[in-house]
Design goal:
Length: about 80
């Protein structure tokens, strides 16, 4: 538990909260307007932004090296 607690530093809490808000907003818009292209674009943008924020905290932990690769991929796809 101690190594996961280090990820919940103040910066980590903000990143996780921002990731949850981004993914949540994308899902809500996609549920409310499922047929529109704008809703699908907002969902993909929210998912990538949320994944970018979630995986950003892994850059500072040596045991999560595999998650850093996911972060670099989301950084390349970041809008």
């Amino acid at each position: 538990m101690k190594r996961w607690a280090s990820l919940l530093a103040p910066l980590g809490v903000v990143a996780v909260a921002f990731g949850l808000v981004s993914v949540g907003a994308g899902v809500v818009v996609a549920i409310l307007q499922p047929g529109t292209a704008a809703a699908r674009a907002f969902l993909s943008q929210g998912f990538l932004t949320g994944l970018f924020a979630f995986t950003g905290t892994a850059l500072y932990h040596p045991d999560l090296w595999w998650l850093s690769r996911v972060h670099f991929l989301t950084q390349a796809l970041f809008p």
